[in-house]
Write a structure and sequence with these properties.
Chain A contains three helices and four strands. By secondary structure, chain A is α+β, with helices and mostly antiparallel strands. Chain A has a domain of about 70 residues: Arc Repressor Mutant, subunit A. In chain B, α3 links the parallel β3 and β4. The chains are: A alpha+beta, B alpha/beta. Chains A and B meet through β1, β2 and β3 of A and β2, β3, β4, β5 and β6 of B. β1 of chain A pairs antiparallel with β7 of chain B. The complex binds iron/sulfur cluster (2 copies).
């Protein structure tokens, strides 16, 4: 099959509120560490996103078992010196959810 | 002044595994003269290409063609790409797929399948594809889902099927596609040859856009819909390949390395071959991949344009197809002094009736049309 790839116009995804259930990576998404780039990347159909260290840390907690609250408390236990980062973590999860990275 | 950009590794490897294809789509972007190209590479050579590109950092692998399912070694190539850590995308018309093959590709680690439809309606689908394919494709799309793949359905839009957009989207819902790509034909290769018959009118495009918007809103969170506006109706060109030699590396069936699909037609180029050069050499040092890298090659109006980092001056092949000069501003841009060539193509298409025969993509037509120059600027 061969048509040229073109510019993809992604319609602005409206804000989707994060649900309370367990969170998992969306179908077809995975995270892997890339030595060449020196960072974790999120891969999905025909797409690559380079992840910051923080983003990667949060997304790796998305395991299909924990809900948002569980992810927040797990990260806060891991990094007690970081103070109250629950707002930041939730904010990122909301963005990731709105972009369709997690479901 | 020419700036020397740091050469970042390719992120995308598009492996055109074969030009063989059971379909004959009139909008195919394969080169018109494909039948005269060199021998299709064997398994071992492709495996080396996969390894070489991956070691440079390539992450997304497109397995395309022609019809990649024609290759009996597809599972072997997929298994290697899985092992290497690629995200693998099979880009197929679905012909050659069945439930068993979908499962064996899944077992080999294939990540994703994009199935293309010519139309939502059986007869028209088959007419455009030049063969009876529709019923099989529906079964196959179901088999892809059943094997657990994320599925992208791609509808290639043009004048004769744009009015069926609703049906296409309904079909996508029925088949439970994860993403739908509504790709308006881009005019390269066979599509360029058939442009007068395929280019939709502005009214059609606007109507289609509103249908796409409506479904997008309705299916939010369930199915992602992308609508690609044909660039002839835009005022700015597409940022072709995110810049020449920036992220995208294409390898043709005979091993020719290209910075984009249609580049092979460009004159005064000698495109390197992966059988005689390493992928690394090709990417970093070949003249072909460096020619339009960065901004130093640009002419006016691009050279001094504040938008050049956004669209890289557009598509080199489109610039060549219209103006005969691959370094010119893509004439889709309304800052180009040659924009009128695009407008003339639009009006030429508008006055072309359905009586004009479609030229199907097949080896016979390839031989017949290979010699003709690809430049079809303006009305005939
Ligand atoms: S566009 Fe049609 S003819 Fe061309 S490779 Fe794809 S399926 Fe075959
Ligand atoms: S003049 Fe060139 S760089 Fe500026 S917008 Fe047009 S194509 Fe892009």
């Amino acid at each position: 099959m061969s048509e040229s790839p073109e510019k993809k116009v992604e319609y602005a995804t409206d804000y989707k509120p994060l649900h309370d259930g367990p969170l998992k990576l969306a179908r077809g998404h995975r995270i892997q560490y890339e030595t060449v780039q020196g960072c974790d990347v999120l891969l999905y159909p025909e797409g690559v996103v380079q992840l910051s260290e923080t983003a990667a840390m949060i997304l790796k907690q998305v395991d299909g078992q924990k809900d948002a609250t569980g992810i927040v408390s797990s990260l806060m236990q891991q990094f007690p010196e970081a103070g109250d980062i629950s707002g930041d973590i939730r904010g990122f999860l909301e963005v990731a959810h709105a972009r369709g990275w997690i479901a | 002044m020419s700036q020397l950009p740091a050469i970042k590794p390719p992120l995308w490897l598009l492996a055109e595994l074969t030009y063989a294809c059971p379909l004959q789509c009139a909008y195919c972007s394969n080169p018109v003269d494909f039948n005269g190209h060199g021998k299709t590479m064997d398994t071992e050579t492709w495996l080396r290409v996969l390894r070489d590109a991956r070691s440079m950092g390539a992450l997304q692998l497109g397995l395309s063609g022609g019809e990649p399912l024609v290759r009996q070694d597809l599972e072997t190539l997929v298994a290697e790409s899985t092992q290497l850590g690629y995200y693998s995308n099979l880009i197929t018309s679905g012909i050659g797929m069945d439930a068993a093959r979908a499962r064996s590709l899944k077992a080999a680690g294939l990540d994703h399948i994009q199935v293309s439809f010519q139309s939502s309606e059986a007869n028209q689908n088959d007419e455009i594809a030049g063969m009876r394919a529709y019923a099989h494709k529906l079964d196959m799309a179901r088999a892809v889902k059943a094997a657990g793949f994320p599925m992208v359905l791609c509808f290639v839009l043009h004048r004769d099927n744009l009015h069926r957009l609703r049906e296409m989207l309904d079909l996508a819902i029925e088949l439970e596609a994860d993403y739908v790509e509504l790709a308006t034909t881009q005019y390269y290769g066979w599509a360029l040859l058939n442009r007068d018959r395929l280019l939709p009118t502005l009214e059609q495009v606007r109507e289609a856009e509103s249908v796409a918007n409506e479904y997008q809103a309705r299916l939010k969170g369930k199915m992602d819909i992308y609508f690609v506006v044909p660039d002839y109706y835009e005022k700015r060109p597409k940022p072709c390949m995110n810049g020449w030699g920036s992220v995208f590396l294409l390898v043709t069936p005979d091993g020719t390395a290209l910075p984009c699909h249609a580049a092979r037609q460009l004159p005064d180029f000698s495109f390197p071959n992966v059988q005689t050069h390493s992928v690394k050499e090709i990417w970093q040092t070949s003249d072909a991949f460096n020619r339009f890298r960065g901004f130093g090659w640009m002419k006016e109006p691009c050279a001094s344009c504040p938008e050049k980092e956004k669209d890289y001056g557009g598509c080199r092949c489109q610039a060549f197809q219209f103006t005969g000069d691959a370094a010119a501003t893509d004439p889709v841009c309304d800052k180009s002094p040659l924009r009128h060539l695009v407008d003339e193509a639009v009006s030429a298409a508008r006055t072309t009736t359905t009586e004009k025969p479609i030229i199907f993509r097949n080896p016979k037509n390839s031989d017949r049309h290979a010699k003709k120059p690809a430049v079809v600027a303006g009305p005939q």
